[in-house]
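Reopening this one. Same input as before:
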Amino acid sequence: MTEDKDIGVNETPIENEQPDVGAPAAADIPVVNEGDAAEADAEAAMLAMLEKLPQEERSASADDIHFASASASKAEFQQLSQPAGSSEARNIDLLMDVDLPVSIELGRTKLAISDILALGPGSVVELNKLAGEPVDLLVNNKVVAKGEVVVIDENFGLRITQLVTPEERLRALGAE
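Same output, byte for byte:
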């Protein structure tokens, strides 16, 4: 049993997507609609239109650019109304309710993949800090303070002993 497909006025059925070796050339294909021109005639008309387009006389070259008229002047900047290091309170009220991740870092180390795969219950990983050495308080993954670990009602906490100065934070950014 075969199915009949509806074919529109401008559509032709496609039997095979790959052309046959013995298939007729495009010029031999009959016109589907009575008012349509043959493909060869349409191609000739397109080529004729392309020939009528204006042609550029020559392309631009580096010699066409003249730098003698260029001038340079010193940049002038407006004076700021407040000095950058002023102690006047800044308006950061808009940011007071923004949450940032805070973490305490006891230390770091590097391990080979084979050592990581060998880790199991009871394994000990040695860190780069000594016992009793201050730990780092990180806000948004940046060190902002150092302190000592304390125990508060069965929870760990941090007693801040030193704030990191802005100069030290800039030095740490340069080291990254």
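So the earlier flakiness isn't reproducible anymore. For the record, Strands lie at 102-105, 135-139, 142-152, 155-163.
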